[in-house]
Amino acid sequence: MLLSIENVTFRYPKASRDALRGVSFSVPQGEFAVLCGLSGCGKSTLLRLIKRELAPFGELSGRILADGTDLTRAAAPSESSADLFSARTIGIVLQDPESQIVTDTVWHELAFGLENLGLPSEVIRRRVAEMAAFFGIEGWYHKKTYELSGGQKQLLNLAAVLAMNPQLLLLDEPTAQLDPIAAADFRSMLTRINRDLGVTILMAEHRLEQVLPLTDHVLLLDRGELLCDGSPAELAAFVHSNHHPMASALPTATRVYLALQNTLPGPDSSASGSSDTPARDIPLTVRDGRALLSAATDRRSPSGDAAEAAATGSETPALAASGVRFRYDKNLPDVLCDTTLCVSAGEHYCLLGGNGSGKTTLLSLLAGLKRPYAGSVKLFGKKLSAFAMGTLYRENLALLPQQPRDVFTEKSIREDLLGAFSRACSFADAKASASAVADKANADMLAMCERLHITDILDSHPYDVSGGELQKAALAKVLASRPKVLLLDEPAKGIDVCGKDELAAILKELTAEGVAVLSVTHDAEWAAEHADRCGLLFDGEVISEGTPHAFFDGNAFYTTAANRMAGDFFPGVVTCEELIRAMSGAGEGSSRATEVSP
Fold first, then answer.
1. What DSSP character marks residue 387?
2. Quick count: other Cβ atoms within 10 Å of Cβ 12?
3. pLDDT of residue 315
4. Cα(93)–Cα(114) distance, rounded to whole angstroms?
5. Which residues contact 212 (CB under 8 A, 6 or more apart)?
6. Cα(405)–Cα(150) distance, rounded to whole angstroms?
7. Is 537 in a helix, a strand, or coil?
8. Is the pTM of this model over 0.70?
9. Residue 32 has what DSSP assignment?
């Protein structure tokens, strides 16, 4: 067995509960395994314990064996065999593409790990050339690493790790910051690495739509405990029958099948009312889902398009960019070219686009952090420059950056949040006493943290929590200023399905109060379900806008799995819930097939 986890329990210093408790499983040589679970369940902690060099400090019991080598045994200063074994045998790719790049050029990044292993120069050159060819890097081999897109950086991280010929590849939500096309390319490369090179893969992921069909073996963690260890279909049957929150993260084809299994044609349709679902019959892919739809709709003959949703935003212009142009240097091409975008009060607008298309740059211009050399940005009809020093960010506008760590400056999340809420309370009531401000700030902070389910991490250092937990903590700090316009850069990144629903509920409450929300996101499923309008940024311009139904319907990549699966069976359907409703009503007459609401 290549990897064996034996009764591993781990607790961080000063933590009130174990991050991992009695976890045991094994991964055979050549397998593609996925470690899933809600944010904070222990996925990242377990991966870092396996990668000995990144193991966090804390109380650890149990054993972690890789190819028979005990990676939990503390090595003496003169005993480095376990460390060398880990460096040579186990590779890891982290969630943030920026965090793993250490050199300034692509070719040097590919060679860096090999140089640290002390390999001969001819071996290094051969392996670097081989990896560059395998990953299609030749075209940007001599580029500076800072010039690469997010997708290119993550492919480079993967290639640099693979150049060291690891037996085991660990991945911690590696596509969280990639656009749909780059993410698909990355997953395709993982499949090739596993099948063509025989590399064993263990990937932490809570977005199961695209990864579950690729895997042999799935492990479900819940609050540090291993709940399920089996095939993808067995996991689907388990979370469905136990009403586990991860059931909402299953592939669309799987969710549709499980919701309608007793009414669909197939080998188990006769077992009407039975809660037992044969795991072998569960579809996992869009292809399987379309076959399911074909069989069902042949029988039910549905017709009609999904109803078009109307935008819910008011006519009040809260934030508007008109003819904006921006470049980072006068000798470089424009990143944004005559970009025009408008977000109304009470509207949630989701902006999509490829890595490197300029989405984050546009947010920086809208937030006043950068200035365009042409065009204008207005907040409630006033140019940003018209706002006095500091007033722009006091109950007017707030930005949640792509890297949530950037908003934290203190040693604990509690200190950071208390400072933010105290400033907001002082601004709201300048005459209040210091003690009144402190009490109000603490109460407001705790209420927000309870709303986001992050009260148990308040005393943690920002670097000691999971990516999803840190994302929610950063959102809490941004919301402390009570902005009328909220700019979010990848707000759903790293957050599990329950956290995404909670985030959407908060944003819905804010828009109901008249707040304008602009979210930059790669998560088409989340945008389709929760946005009022969507836009696509391409070649420096917002080239397409519309309601989710109009925007996503018929696209190949910038769309949802439900829309791909529905196709011409149910035109206009863009969410899993809509597809389930459409299929449920199809048998009651063709008119029911048109009653699909956002």
1. S
2. 18
3. 62
4. 16
5. 34, 218, 232, 235, 236, 250, 251, 254, 284
6. 18
7. strand
8. yes
9. E
How far apart (Å, rounded) are the C-alpha atoms in residues 137 and 545?
34
Residues 6+ apart with CB under 8 A from 468: 39, 40, 206, 494, 495, 496, 499
Q: β-pairing, 32-36 with 200-204?
A: parallel
Average pLDDT (356-369) is 92
Give dist(CA 143, CA 138) in Å, integer: 10
Burial 473-484 (b: 16+ CB within 10 A, else e): bbbbbbbbbbbb
Q: Which of 367, 360, 381, 460 is nearest to 414 (CA)?
A: 460
Contact partners, residue 299, CB within 8 Å, separation at least 6:
265, 587
Look at residue 588 in the predicted model and tell me its pLDDT.
46
Residue 370 has which token pair? 């950068």
557: left (phi over 0), alpha (psi -120 to 50) or beta: alpha
Q: What band does 389 get if pLDDT is binned at 50, 70 and 90? A: low
pLDDT at 467 over 80: no
- Residue 333 identity (one-letter amino acid): P
Read off the pLDDT band of 305 (50, 70, 90).
Answer: very low
Separation in Å, CA 218 to CA 104, 201, 208, 260, 561: 37, 11, 10, 24, 21
Among 232-236, 299-303, 526-530, the range scoring the smallest mean pLDDT is: 299-303
**pLDDT averaged over every residue in the chain:** 86
Q: Per mean pLDDT, which range of 1-5, 202-206, 230-234, 566-570 is the poorest?
A: 566-570
Asked if pLDDT for residue 392 goes beyond 80, the answer is yes
pLDDT surpasses 90 at 49: yes
Q: Where are the alpha helices (DSSP H) in 301-385?
A: 359-366
Q: What is the dihedral of CA 570, 576, 582, 583, to 10 degrees?
A: 100
| Torsion over CA: 519, 522, 526, 529 (sign) | positive
The two three-digit tokens of residue 108, written as one number: 């040097």
Q: Which two tokens stand for residue 496?
A: 């599990």
Q: In 3D, which of 428, 415, 429, 504 has the Cα closest to residue 460? A: 415
Q: 317-326 and 397-400: which strand pairing? A: unpaired
SS3 content of the chain, % helix, strand, coil (to 5): 40, 20, 40
- Residue pLDDT, tens place only, 409-421: 999 999 999 999 9
Q: 420: which residues sit within 8 A by CB, 6+ positions away? A: 477, 480, 481
Contacts of 459 (CB under 8 A, 6+ apart): 14, 412, 413, 414
DSSP string, 257-325: HHHHTTTSSSTTTTSTT-----GGG---SHHHHHHHHHHHHHHH----PPPPPPP---S-EEEEEEEEE
